[in-house]
Amino acid sequence: MTPAALRPLLLAAAAALTLGACSAATTADTTQAGDDPTAGGSGTVTVLAAASLTAPLTALAEQYERDHPGVTVRLSFGSSTTLAQQISEGAPADLYASAGEAPLSLLPPDAAGDGGRATIARNTVEIATPPDNPGAVADLRDLGDPDLDVVLCAATVPCGKAADDVLRTAGVTAHVVSREVDVKATLTKVVLGEADAALVYHSDVVAAGGDVRGVEIPAADNVFLTYPLLWFSDDPDVVGFADLVAGPTGTAALEAAGFLAP
Amino acid sequence: MTAPAPTVATPGAARRHPGRSRAVLLVPAGLGVALVVLPLLGLLLRTDWGSFASNLSAPVVWPAIRLSLVTTLVTVALCFVLGTPLAWLLSRADGRAATWLRAVLTVPVVLPPVVGGVALLMAYGRRGVVGAPLFEAFGLRLPFTPTAVVLAQVFVSLPFFVLAVEGAMRAVDARYDAVAATLGATPLRIFVRVALPLAAPGIASGAALAWARALGEFGATITFAGNFAGSTQTAPLAVYVALQNDPQAALALSIAMLAVSLLVLGMLRGRWIR
Question: Would the pTM count as exceeding 0.80?
Answer without folding.
Answer: no
